[in-house]
Specification:
Blueprint (H helix, E strand, L loop, with lengths): L4 H9 L3 H15 L3 H20 L7 H12 L1
Length: 74
């Protein structure tokens, strides 16, 4: 017998944030099992790494990006 969704949702929402986060990661991972999609992400990561290694990609420090975003949102 399965647990009704509303009951399950209430139980999950009562968990501490770190446990909800871990559960969310596992649920998302369970949906990401399409080999074609995984292969496409592997190829994209390799392409981006090659751009970085070759100097083609312009890297911007994270703190600089956040500062620019904060200034735009003011």
């Amino acid at each position: 017998m399965s647990t009704p969704l509303a009951v399950l949702e209430a139980e999950i929402l009562s968990l501490p944030a770190d446990e909800r986060s871990r559960l969310l990661d596992r649920l998302i991972a369970s949906l990401d099992n399409d080999p074609e999609i995984q292969e496409a992400w592997i190829q994209e990561a390799a392409r981006r790494a090659a751009e970085i290694d070759s100097g083609e990609a312009k890297l911007i420090p994270g703190e600089q990006v956040l500062e620019e975003l904060r200034s735009r949102l003011k």
